[in-house]
Structure formats: structure tokens, C-alpha cells
Amino acid sequence: MAIPVERFYLAEGVSGTLQQRIRAMVADGILTGRFRAGEKMPSSRGLAAHLGVSRITVTLAYTELVAADYLTARGRSGYFVSEGVPVQPEFRPAPQATGTVDWESLCAGRFSRMERVERPEDWRAYPYPFIYGQADPALFDHQNWRLCALQALGRREFETLTADRYERDDPLLIEYLLRNILPRRGIEARPAEVLVTMGAQNALWLAAQVLLRPGGHAVVENPGYPGFRAMVAQAGARVTPVAVDEGGLSVDSLPEGVDVVFTTASHQSPTNATMPVARRTALLRAAEERNFLVVEDDYEFEMSFLTPVSPSIKSLDSGGRVVHAGSFSKSIFPGLRLGWLVGPEPFIREARALRAQVLRHPPGQLQRTAAHFLSLGHYDALVNRMKAAFAKRRKAMEEAIALHGLRVAGQGGFGGSSFWMEAPEGVDTETLALRLRREGVLIEPGRVFFHPGTERRNFYRLAYSSIPVGKIPDGIALVAQAMREG
């Protein structure tokens, strides 16, 4: 007797083709013990009729399951559950824990309490998502990324895909960074001075851990990227916030006795201010005179589409005091999680050793896929497409903001992908954001960007990287209406 077809069902909400879902359904039934070794499967015709799919779909799924040794085919007798599949162990799980450990006190929220910009997981379902840093599927080059991924998965590159490189990075990716990406920032470096990271966040964390000691002293921008504060705190160092103005971080306001200064000079986060070359030079001069280091987060460098970019701080650094961090999160997509660190060889050596203790190295297949995407010219084409689209969206934003009388606190003179906005005094943008969410509009309240004790609740960020240009006017109108209604 075959297993009754009534025991087979396709779960709702499962992604994949019908063929893939049928294969997953059968494999799950075998692995959980619902279908046992030697039992006969329903005929392809019978299961297809039960599931409401074509017979060829079931036949192809069965064929794949045979190839994976979940099923065996016995001539005209049909398909049977393979004798060689693993089965669930015959033991009972332990009873539910009674909670004798006070995990809340033990963990003390040391990491989960870090302030971060919150957004709903289903943000793409909202018609007016003015949120920052997400990829736009209408702009991304899916076809060529897929071809590069297939090339990286091919037999010729099997070693790159499967090898444990220990502390080393993909040489093709390093070569492209050295010859193309870094020179655009005015940086010359050797392979021993570059480290691939799991995005800029990982790069900055590594820098903080290597450069700071317990009791050390670091400067962060205010308002600024919240992650800087958390990284410094995890290193056991003291944090001093320094206010930013229209030129970014104020060098004249730096305190005495600082060890490391963290800055987003290209496009200050979140105000978008670009630090002038004269101020960058002044920062380096102060670093030499007062013996501190600079960590430069090369935030949104590629999105400078209005005027030519300024040289990076690292490119002006003759004293070897700057560590430069960058990533492909904004220019390719954030889920790629690939970035880099550039710094003096002794620093990179220590950062590499620390990375090896935490995650060994970023996945080889991702590194090689990115290397192909870059070297074949697809990356530059993508960046140019994004710049053109962002320029149109920025113009639409400027016009809508002016039409409705909203106040821009910072928009950046080089481009970028967002506006830093200031609401009237008394407006709590966190409350405003919740009200707008019910209207299908997502904005980012600004309180989280300010250092504790200096919070301003009437600031917010409007980004245009993920919203179609045609949606911008109506979305801004809803923001203005909600602002007027208080």
C-alpha cells in the first residue's frame, strides 16, 4: 500500500516553485519520520491530482528526490522512501526549562539596548517609504549579478568557492579595490594595507576594537551614526560627542586627550554635510599636533552626483594617522555585507587577526561574485544608473518640500540619498512617524542620531533611495499635512 495522498499537503506561505515546494514537503516528511524507510510513495498521477498540479511537476520533483537519495525508483513498482535517509533519534526532549537562570540580569542588555533606526520589516508594502539605505529592485542589475554569481559557482572556481582562506581575502577583489575603487578616493595602498570586511559596520567595529583600550577616549559626531557610540562603549572607552555644522565635524571643538576621532566626512550621517578640504587638512594637522588617530567612514562616496567629490581624508594623510572604511552597501545592496578597511600595515595585521577570531573571512563565493561584477563593468553601470535616478528623485523632493513649506536642516551639496529635516519646535517626530505609518508613509525620526542627553525630538530624515519618483509629491504632501495637524 502506498502512503495515503491525504498525508501530503503544500504549506501556505512557503516560497519557491511548485516543484521545489513538493520536494521540500516530501523531504520534510521523511526527515521528521512521517514517511518511513521502505514505504511506497503515491503515484505521480495520484499526488498531482490531490495537490492540483501537473503530473510532470510531481514527476520532476520525484526525480530530484531520487538523485538526492530521499527516494528510490523500482522500475514499474513506483517510488519508495530510501533506506539510507537519516531518521529522527528515538529519545524524548527534556521538559520545558523552568527559568532558574535570570538571563535578563546575566546579559544585562549590553548589546540589545543599542539605539538604532527602526523600520517595519514589511516596509516595501508601504506606498511612501522615505527610508534610508535600501536597494531599489528597479535599478539593480539582476541579470548580470546572477551571471557573475553563476561564474563564481562554476567548476573552474571551485577552490575559491570551497576553500578556507584562513585570514586571506580574494585576490581578485583586493586587486580591483587597489586599482579602481580606492584610487577614485585618492588612495594608494598595497595589498597588506587592505582588509575585506562584512560591510562598513564590521570594518568600523574592528577599527574601534584595535585602536581603543579600556579607559581610552573617542570623539563621535553629534548628531551622528548611532553605531559609533556602541562600538566605542564596547571597547571600554569614553565617548565625547562633538557637534557638527554645515561643514561636518567641528575641528575647533575637539576636546583634549582624545585618542580616536570617528567621522563621516564625505556625507555626514545624518545631516549630509560634506567636510571642506580645508577642514580635513585642519583635522589632520590637529591629529599630528595632539597625537590622535582618525577613523574615516567613507559614507555614500559613490552617490556624489551634483558636484565633483573632495579627496578622502586618507588621501591627504601623510602621517599615517587615518584608517579608512568603506562598503558596497549603498552602491550595490546592503545584504551583500562586503566592505573594506585601509590603514597602515601593522593596523591591518591586527584587524585581520581579530577578524579571523570572529568570522575567519567573508564568504569566498560572495567576494568572487563581487569581484566579477566590478571587473566586468557592471558596477560602474549600476552606479551611473543610480546617480541618474537619484538626481531626478532629489529634484522631485526639493520641489515638493518647497511647495509644502517643510524645513530642510541638511541636504548636502554633493548628492547623497536623503534630506535631514527639522520640524517645528514641539513636534515629536517619533509620534509623527507612527501617525504617518497609518497613512502608508515611512519617515525616520531623528532622536536616535543624537548623543544621550542632547536629544532633539523634532528632527527627522527623508530618504529617496527606495521610493519611485512618481510617489514623492503625494508622500511629501502627506508628511506636511500630518505636520500641520500636529
UniProtKB/TrEMBL annotation:
Gene3D superfamilies in UniProt: Type I PLP-dependent aspartate aminotransferase-like (Major domain), Winged helix-like DNA-binding domain superfamily/Winged helix DNA-binding domain
Record flagged with keyword Transferase: yes
GO molecular function terms listed in the Swiss-Prot or TrEMBL record: transaminase activity
The keyword Transferase belongs to this UniProt entry's keyword annotation: yes
Domain of life: Bacteria
Pfam families tied to this protein: Aminotran_1_2, GntR
Entries under InterPro entries matching the protein: Aminotransferase_I/II_large (IPR004839), HTH_trans_reg/aminotransferase (IPR051446), PyrdxlP-dep_Trfase (IPR015424), PyrdxlP-dep_Trfase_major (IPR015421), Tscrpt_reg_HTH_GntR (IPR000524), WH-like_DNA-bd_sf (IPR036388), WH_DNA-bd_sf (IPR036390)
Domain HTH gntR-type: 16-84
Key words of the record: Aminotransferase, DNA-binding, Pyridoxal phosphate, Transcription, Transcription regulation, Transferase
Family, as annotated: In the C-terminal section; belongs to the class-I pyridoxal-phosphate-dependent aminotransferase family.
Family annotation (PANTHER family): HTH-TYPE TRANSCRIPTIONAL REGULATORY PROTEIN GABR
UniProt protein name: PLP-dependent aminotransferase family protein
